[in-house]
Design brief:
There is one protein chain. The protein folds into two domains: about 80 residues, Orthogonal Bundle (Endonuclease Iii, domain 2); about 100 residues, Endonuclease III, domain 1. It is globular. The mean pLDDT is about 95. Helices cover about 55% and strands about 0% of the residues.
Length: about 220
């Protein structure tokens, strides 16, 4: 993915924000429970329009019954549906998980691929999910995962003017060192959940208050 070119002011703001947030969250990581790349992929797929807390309640039984892509490729979709029903969109998620497991077994020798191009061939896996799995489970950094928190904070912090996740990703990539792309995602997600929420951002106690342009917010 070709990166967009930021101005010096935005680049410096991103550097300062990263430095402050990494001090606040020195060891950021996904809040999903996982032990290997396959489990992280499954959990991330389930987390679409669902909370991490709910997903973490579902995955123990899911991984106990089908501990890897080989087992899941042989599962009945209806059985997967029953286990993941509480995560929402369960029919589509179950269908995609089984199909992804079949593709992993049939074309990738039972191991998840290590490139964006190959990862996004898996049913139900777009760039956001692929970025999360590649960066966290494989230390492969091809982009910045853009979820609802990253999208919101990127606009408020003046990193982007777009609402398109692909464009936002292109805007974010040159703002951070490539090896820190995964970490940048975690920092924005964590801060979005704790301080910079959608409806009532806590600007009065925000440690970025002096450098954040607060785009889209009523400035006091």
């Amino acid at each position: 993915m070709k990166k967009n070119t930021p101005d010096k002011k935005t680049l410096q703001r991103a550097k300062d924000i990263y430095a402050r947030l990494i001090t606040r969250y020195p060891d950021p990581a996904p809040e999903l429970d996982w032990k290997n790349a396959w489990e992280l992929l499954v959990a991330t797929v389930l987390a679409a329009q669902c909370t991490d807390v709910r997903v973490n309640k579902v995955t123990p039984e899911l991984f106990n019954r089908w501990p890897g892509p080989e087992a899941m490729s042989r599962a009945e979709v209806s059985d997967i549906e029953e286990v993941i029903r509480s995560t929402g969109l369960f029919r589509n998620k179950a269908k995609n998980l089984k199909a992804a497991a079949e593709l992993v077994m049939g074309e990738f020798g039972g191991e998840l691929p290590r490139t964006m191009q190959e990862m996004t061939r898996l049913p139900g896996v777009a760039r956001k999910t692929a970025n999360i799995v590649l960066s966290n489970a494989m230390d492969v950094h091809e982009g910045v995962a853009v979820d609802t928190h990253v999208k919101r904070l990127s606009f408020r912090m003046g990193f982007t003017t777009s609402t398109n996740p692909d464009v936002i990703e292109k805007d974010l990539m040159p703002l951070f060192e490539q090896q820190n792309w995964g970490t940048a995602n975690h920092l924005l997600v964590l801060y979005g959940r704790e301080i910079c929420s959608a409806r009532s951002p806590k600007c009065d106690i925000c440690q970025l208050n002096d450098i954040c342009p607060k785009n889209g917010l009523e400035k006091k």
